[in-house]
Design brief:
By secondary structure, the chain is mainly alpha-helical. Helix content is 80%, strand content 1%. It has a two-stranded antiparallel sheet. Helix 1 packs antiparallel against helix 8.
């Protein structure tokens, strides 16, 4: 079968907007909930631990299912998986809004994470097939990152307003009309390359259990429940060995063969984990350090969140002009400097210094993340684009979870700067790896799309 005709740039714009809004919706659900915690505690008669699980359940399900979501996108077709994910996300959001108690909210939050895991890798795979030239693909991914990154800026402000007007349930109701808009914008089917092999479910289920157990171990360690952390850690380790053993004999392995020894792609996965570690450290620690109202916290974070929303468009131009490694390296330079300034600011209560530090942190995210996504996609086979998206976002979620646990364990009134300094060290390791990657002289070429096995 011949490859599908790629539509003109103008006709692809609504679809790109829809794909970007879908990711916006997934990120908004995380950032907007941060300011709803007190309202949920009062409404559902729960405490800090309960509302913490409302957040952790979502991220656990998302991290555990992202690789499966990527495999489904590769093997069933990215468009089918994307549509189901968006529709399910909207329905699960309404279910969260109608939750009568905490137990029901946790169940529906887990479902929300599963549908989000279908959206993220499939949206990236669809962009890879809409824009098959590396330069145009880089610009499209930058626009995708800019629109979705606006959720970071809009979340705290929009969430505070919605809660003031209609309570925490309005935060979830918002996702339903957004899902409808996405489905309308992406109503035209996007043809994607897919594999003909069936999915082997057992490795995915064991991997999901592995990631969930590891997340529980990290979370309990952050809460300093060391016996439970050790128990879950041992379970995660045993499940990890089981996953590897099962996957070796699987007819449809978790990681496509073209990715198994693809060092540039796995390096990009590590970069993604490092960036999310640093980003989550800031988002988790700043509200606790400031101990301010949601509105004031949102304003304090604006230097970072606004830049994350706007700067990826410039990153796309940098990638087109110099390749992805230059903005990735710029980000890994800006981020640790910003984190060190933020550490000095929270230790000495300097608002201006904190603003400058957060501005540099925003530059670090917005330079690095869109470029490394394009870097990974360009170096993977076209039929592995969904797997790349799934694994990349899974490693990012692991980095985020580890950051929250580490910050929770080290942040105190006496040591407010420690989490920021640890995150700066993580970014410097990322910077060192960009130098090592450059010295390996890996060619900056994207693979050609095959002409068969196209899903229409």
């Amino acid at each position: 079968m011949s490859a599908p005709t790629v539509p003109a740039e103008r006709s692809r714009t609504p679809q790109l907007l829809g794909l970007s809004l879908a990711y916006f919706m997934v990120l908004l659900d995380t950032t907007v909930l941060a300011v709803a915690e007190r309202s949920i505690m009062t409404s559902l008669h729960t405490g800090v631990v309960g509302v913490g699980w409302a957040t952790t359940t979502y991220t656990m399900a998302l991290a555990a299912a992202l690789v499966l979501g990527g495999s489904l996108a590769d093997r069933l077709g990215g468009y089918r998986v994307f549509v189901v994910g968006v529709a399910g996300f909207g329905a699960a959001s309404l279910a969260c809004a109608c939750s009568p108690d905490l137990a029901a909210l946790l169940v529906f939050r887990a479902l929300l994470g599963l549908f989000a895991a279908a959206i993220v890798p499939s949206s990236l795979a669809l962009i890879a097939h809409l824009y098959r030239q590396p330069r145009s693909r880089g610009r499209a991914i930058s626009a995708w990152a800019a629109i979705s990154g606006a959720a970071m800026a809009a979340g705290p402000v929009l969430g505070g307003w919605l809660i003031a007007v209609a309570g925490w349930r309005a935060v979830f109701v918002l996702n339903a009309p957004l899902a409808l808009v996405v489905l309308v914008l992406c109503r035209s089917r996007i043809a994607t390359v897919r594999r003909a092999r069936a999915i082997s479910w057992l490795p995915h289920l064991v991997l999901a259990a592995t990631l969930a157990s590891a997340t529980l171990a990290i979370t309990r360690a952050g809460q300093r429940s060391w016996p439970q952390a050790a128990l879950f850690g041992l379970v995660a380790l045993a499940l990890a060995f089981g996953t590897a053993a099962i996957d070796r004999s699987s007819p449809a392995p978790l990681v496509p063969g073209s990715l198994r020894r693809n060092r540039p792609v796995w390096t990009a996965f590590g970069w993604g984990a490092a960036i999310n570690y640093a980003l989550t450290t800031v988002i988790f620690s700043i509200p606790l350090v400031l101990a301010a109202s949601p509105a004031r916290t949102g304003v304090a974070l604006l230097p970072m969140t606004l830049l994350v929303a706007v700067n990826p468009l410039l990153t796309g131009r940098l990638v087109a002009a110099f390749g992805p490694v230059v903005p990735i390296r710029l980000g890994f330079v800006a981020f640790p400097v910003g984190l060190c300034l933020a550490a000095a600011a929270v230790a000495g209560d300097h608002a201006v210094l904190l603003g400058v530090g957060l501005l540099l942190c925003g530059a670090g995210v917005s330079w690095t993340l869109p470029a490394l996504v394009g870097y990974a996609v360009d170096r993977a086979a076209p039929d592995a684009a969904g797997a790349v998206g799934g694994i990349l976002n899974a490693t990012r979620q692991v980095g985020a979870t580890l950051a929250a646990a580490a910050a929770g364990a080290t942040l105190s009134p006496r040591t407010p700067a420690v989490p920021f300094l640890i995150a700066a060290a993580v970014c410097l390791i990322g910077l060192a790896s960009t130098v090592a990657r450059h010295r390996s002289r890996t060619p900056d070429r994207a693979p050609e799309l095959p002409s068969d096995r196209v899903s229409n």
